[in-house]
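Shapes recur. Our protein:

. . .
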Amino acid sequence: MKRISQKQLNQLDNLYRNGQLDGSKINNWTMLSREDGNSLINKAEGTPKQTYQPAEVIVKNFLLEQIRSNELVMQEELLRFIPLATAERLCWMFQSSNKNTEADLSNAQCRRIRILIAKGFLKHKALGEIKNLSRKAAEKLIEEGENNALKEN
């Protein structure tokens, strides 16, 4: 069984970019045989353009960064034909899971931010918005307010 040829891969790339190839039908293109490649090409050529949405470069780059930093366990090759919906779902799951692991701000940080706002060193923010901050975001905001206070003195 011969592996997919470079010519076939180029054809699949073009069909993917045109929105004629459903990338979710390809589990791992590195394992495709020539026969599988021909079958995918023939089916995709009969599909109207823009039927499927290929993932945008920015989304693929985000996922690639996460893979290379070992935050996301996935083979880089699988991004080649990833559909937009799948890529966006992965981004959403990754970002929402990271948000959920960040610690919330402490009561002391909340008080400090409210004091800095009251003294005019930070722009006004609603209490609900302040309470939704993570510890890291609160630290940055406090630092910004303290820097503004130093500049004023």
In short: The helical segments are 6-17, 34-45, 57-68, 84-101, 107-118, 127-131, 135-152.
